[in-house]
Predict the structure.
Amino acid sequence: MVYALINATVFTGKEKTTGKVILIENNKIIELADPGSVPSNAKTVDCNGYFISPGLIDLQIAGGGGFLFSENPTEKALEAITESILKDGTTGFLIAVPSNSFDAYLNLFKVLKQNPHPAILGVHLEGPYINIVRGGAHNRKYIKKPDKNEIKELLDAADGAVKMITLAPELCGPDIINTITDYGIVVAAGHSNATFDEARAGFEWGIKATTHLFNAMSQFHHREPGLPGATLITEGIYASIIADGIHVDYNTISIAKKIMKNRLYLVSDAVEENLEGAYLHTRQKDRFTLPDGTLSGSNLTMLEAVQNCVQSVGVEVEEALRMASTYPAQLIGLDNSGYISEGYIANLTVFDEFYKARQVIIEGEFYL
């Protein structure tokens, strides 16, 4: 079946265009065509003047739909989380798992393997090889020093499920980082108290990104710029940022964006309320906190992050959408995603003028 998406403003990842038709067959984009060249056998889908962008990709989300996956690694929880994320306009995500026990990791790998979904891109292990000084909301009993043999055992058991790992470069030398990157995993610096020089060394050893820039890390100081300073100035290093105006002030996001340009991308870092177990998150009006009031996660969607960048940071909408789709796809090596172009996977987000999702299309399938 060939689908023809008509009557929409299309953000291709390179430009904004109107008066074009997106042709989809099977799981691929055939063409961004003129209306007169639509095949006679195509099924027309009227997009009602909405906007279409490459599918939004969230490389760090821990829960949704009433479940925190690390505390509820079940088929039911995974289904609810995925459904919730799709309804908010995201077509692909890494499920984020904080520092945890070896057995817990093995269990959740098993659940993911038994319940594949095209929107689930894999796992982002946030820890456990992080700095306890910058542990944030992580349970301290699970934070540990890296052990090469344990890491290999863990990643062998993951069987390709792990796509990203956040660690502290000051605690993980080149041998550890190379062990991880040899599995094809993107290594990010985060929950780290690294000095500027320690961070730069980590980048030289193979770290490709920084996790939730400015949060849970050494702070930028005029005498010691730390991990943020190293991230801002090092070409080729990406960084995620949480654009809710709570984790990071919008002016700070603006500064980072002006410096980093296409190296800065959006994540939700969203969690879900959870009142039992190792990770307790309490829902507030606009965020989640630990029981003691410590900020522990966002209540943000990717479309809201895009909207905030446009309306509160001053980023052009085309660029804000790239921050939520094109750049994260590039970081984790999704060469066939992040653009609306011939031959690319048909992962699309359809949204209205209020940045509310109206449809998500994943591998050519309509989900809303």
Observations:
- The chain has a mean pLDDT of 97.
- The chain has two domains: 2-53+338-366, 56-331.
- The domain at 56-331 is CATH 3.20.20.140 (TIM Barrel).
- The CA atoms of residues 89 and 120 lie 14 Å apart.
